[in-house]
Specification:
Length: 450
């Protein structure tokens, strides 16, 4: 049996949310206000899964289904734009959501919010959001995406939007409306977080940016650092690099090493941050998704999630410990899983109330079906309702099996094995890619790829 931990969604359990698209991209703090009912001290509870019988994952050892283009245009991979925040009301910030797809011709198309140039359309395009996917300017022969960074077949790394860059012999934090090349040796894999970028090269791992969580150098150093070698223990070649406020390296043998902030370090450590790369307890990792404070992974068909609520601004006694879910826990799902995507849980406090804006998750099963659970205030679970999903619900209306799924707090997109992309949920920024702003959808809609 595969097992699932679900965030405690709100005190007003069972109520469906009725947020309007015209209200903006707000996380539904009213319906999740802890003042509306009994306070919950635990950020997660176990949940049962309705639907078909659970299938045994013990013998499953497969990865995602391949994409085989059946028509043009065709996408080969899918990412979210690097999450940024925008002012939405007098004192509320909300996520600016968007997605990018790597097309089979080696170009990249993005859509959604563009407040920091994350669509990569150049100076002339301004910072207006776009519901019409269009190609990032100047990119070709791309083989890998990591949020707002791309790697070409020759190993060049290009980044755009708000993030960490390299200028001269120092790092820089800036907004770039068009791709800027990162001056490093040819890269084999790349990873990007809000403060740090990393690239695996022939000579090892290079990271640059802000060293707030000791992801670049074990010695605390101020400012923004240029590309710096990370001292990794010897081992199998690097297969993947995933960066948030912690850094994860997945090797070809499936072993996973982490360092940085705890959580989401995903292992026992007496240090926070922990600057020393060390193996996590998970082996044979096939996929890993990471936010600033939480993560999910799949191994041999079993999904695992871990992390913490962002307690910025909360009293010290709420929640009782940010480490309560610091180690990987298995998740319940209707079938073996090949990939899980997660979002960040945040919490805020005022003198009169405490509000938890909970996580949500989506996963791809071995069959290619997509399941979502957690926050569903804008239909982002894809089951045709706005009822919070306290268990994994199947996304309805996808015309083909999914290869991967990506989540933002209020919207979701899936790449199908046919190369088509479908999105659902909130559409305030045009992040559903259907050509219209607002007018969200409770069920999947095809993205109008260029």
């Amino acid at each position: 049996m595969v097992v699932l931990a679900v965030c405690s969604l709100c005190a007003a359990a069972g109520a469906s949310c009725s947020s309007s698209e015209e209200d903006g991209p707000l996380l539904p703090s009213d319906s999740l206000d802890a003042g509306a009912g009994p306070e919950t001290s635990e950020p997660a509870v176990d949940a049962e899964v309705d639907g078909p019988p659970l299938r045994d994952a013990a013998a499953f050892d497969g990865g995602s289904r391949p994409v085989v283009c059946t028509s043009q245009p065709c996408a080969k991979s899918l990412v979210t734009t690097l999450p940024t925040m925008v002012l939405s009301g007098p004192s509320t910030i909300a996520p600016a959501e968007g997605f990018c797809a790597l097309l089979d011709d080696g170009t990249v198309a993005c859509w959604g919010a563009n407040n920091d140039g994350q669509l990569g359309r150049g100076d002339d395009a301004g910072i207006t959001e776009s519901a019409i996917p269009a190609r990032v300017v100047g990119l070709s022969n791309i083989v890998e995406l990591a949020h707002n960074c791309a790697r070409s077949a020759s190993g060049d790394v290009w980044c755009w939007g708000l993030g960490v860059y390299v200028r001269g012999d120092a790092g820089a934090y800036a907004s770039e409306p068009a791709p800027v090349r990162v001056p490093i040796p040819p890269a084999k894999r790349i990873g990007l977080g809000r403060l740090v970028g990393c690239a695996a090269t022939d000579d090892g791992l290079l990271c640059w940016g802000q060293n707030a969580f000791l992801q670049i150098d074990p010695i605390p150093r101020g400012g923004l650092l240029p590309p710096t070698p990370v001292d990794l223990p010897p081992g199998a070649p690097i297969r993947d690099v995933v960066v948030g406020d912690a850094t994860f390296v997945i090797r070809e043998d499936g072993s996973t090493w982490s360092w940085g902030r705890s959580p989401p370090l995903g292992r026992v450590s007496s240090l926070d941050p922990d600057p020393h790369p060390a193996p996590t307890g998970l082996a044979a990792i096939s996929s890993l998704d990471l936010t600033n404070t939480s993560a999910c992974a799949t191994s041999k068909g079993v999904g695992y999630c871990w992390g913490a609520i962002d307690t910025t601004g909360l009293p010290e006694d709420y929640p009782p410990s940010p480490l309560v879910n610091a180690l990987p826990k298995p998740v319940v799902a209707p079938e073996p899983l090949v990939q899980i995507a997660t979002t960040e849980t945040s919490a805020t406090s005022t003198p009169s109330s405490r509000t938890v804006r909970p996580q949500r998750w989506c996963a791809v099963g071995a069959s290619g079906d997509v399941y979502c659970w957690g926050l569903n205030s804008h239909g982002q679970a894809g089951d045709g309702t706005k009822n919070h999903a306290y268990h994994a619900v199947k996304v309805e209306g996808l015309p083909a099996p999914a290869a991967e799924v990506k989540t933002m707090p209020l919207s979701t997109c899936a790449l199908l094995t046919t190369g088509k992309v479908y999105c659902w949920g909130n559409n305030f920024y045009g992040q559903l890619g259907t050509g219209t702003i607002k007018g969200g959808s409770l069920t999947p809609q095809e993205v109008a790829l260029p």
